[in-house]
Amino acid sequence: MTVIESIPATDLLDPTPCATPPSAYLRPDGEDRYTIGEVAQFTGLSAHTLRWYEQIGLLGQVERSHTGQRRFCNRDLDWLELVGKLRLTGMAVADMVRYAELVRQGESTFDERREILLATRRQVLARIAELHGTLAVLDYKIDYYGGSGR
Amino acid sequence: MTVIESIPATDLLDPTPCATPPSAYLRPDGEDRYTIGEVAQFTGLSAHTLRWYEQIGLLGQVERSHTGQRRFCNRDLDWLELVGKLRLTGMAVADMVRYAELVRQGESTFDERREILLATRRQVLARIAELHGTLAVLDYKIDYYGGSGR
DNA sequence: GGCTTGCCTAGAGTGCACTCGAAGGTCTTA
DNA sequence: TAAGACCTTCGAGTGCACTCTAGGCAAGCC
């Protein structure tokens, strides 16, 4: 919960459109075929939720095995990590789907994507300020109830 | 939204159990009898929501006029202001109801109330840290999309 | 061969926090 | 005294983000 991550310089050159900061992959690229159960464990999302994400377009078409089972790749994990971060900001699923669609449309949507992220950034800053405000109220009342304990 | 409030020293002695930081009251104490519509306008909550809050015990018995209409007082506004702050922390309504019950039970519940607020405080701090983490990711991606704009 | 485990689909259900509608009573202003 | 804004209760509806159910397939193990 108290995760403030730093971003290694090696990642700053990553050319993929859905680049996100570092992940500890389960397997190296080329051998990256994960079952839905593995991904569920790795991301903390349920298998149900992962299927639902794909269904609503938040995940794009996931590859399938010859028997029709999903086989997620490292890139999918990257994307899910970003989705997780966006979810933490309070962004609505529908908005994330919109963003995912823009990613799928390619480079021509860079500007729009940047705008979305900038707007999200502003909302996060506002939310942080709001939380500092509630913190002041909480501290005031905690003091009233006999203080300390912090 | 960017409200970081300061608490005037004059309020620090307030002896009421549901004391909250300053409100700009509509009317001075003694003449503080507001209709539900006025309170709705003042708090931004709908009249429906205010009735629902009372119904579930988040608001305690609101006074009534001789014809049975609700007449809110400044104290109710104070309480609603606190509820608004707690709601901003993401506290569940059921938990706020629990807190309200403790307030109604009187001084013997001071310790328990302080514990609740301390726990909430920890959650708010964790949430702020989490948001700083998402901010780092957003900045990373915004840079990738051509930066600036902040 | 039978059992278990894990996966598939489509669609229904859940919990939260409101939010609204219906049917009717009351208050205010003209 | 009449219009219309505002009030009441009760219960149903909404939107979100999952979460689960049912019914079935496929692979691995004893």
Secondary-structure map with pairings?
The structure is a homodimer of 150-residue chains.
Chain A: H1 36-43, H2 47-55, H3 74-88, H4 93-105, H5 110-144
The structure holds a DNA duplex (30 and 30 nucleotides).
Largest sheet of chain A: none
- What fraction strand of chain A? under 5%
What's the number of structural domains of chain A?
Answer: 1
In CATH terms, what is the fold-level topology of chain A?
Multidrug-efflux Transporter Regulator, Chain: A, Domain 2
The CATH architecture name of chain A reads Orthogonal Bundle
CATH class of chain A: Mainly Alpha
The global form of chain A is extended
What this model shows, in words?
Chains A, B: Keywords: DNA-binding. Chains A, B: This is MerR family transcriptional regulator. Chains A, B: One of its GO terms (molecular function) is DNA-binding transcription factor activity. The structure is a homodimer of 150-residue chains. Chain A is an all-alpha fold. Chain A has one domain: Multidrug-efflux Transporter Regulator, Chain: A, Domain 2 (Orthogonal Bundle). Chain A has five helices and no strands. The longest helix of chain A is centred in the last third of the chain and has 35 residues. The radius of gyration of chain A is 19 Å and the shape is extended. The N terminus of chain A is likely disordered. The interface between A and B is large, with 52 and 52 residues. Chain A binds a DNA duplex (30 and 30 nucleotides) through helix 2.
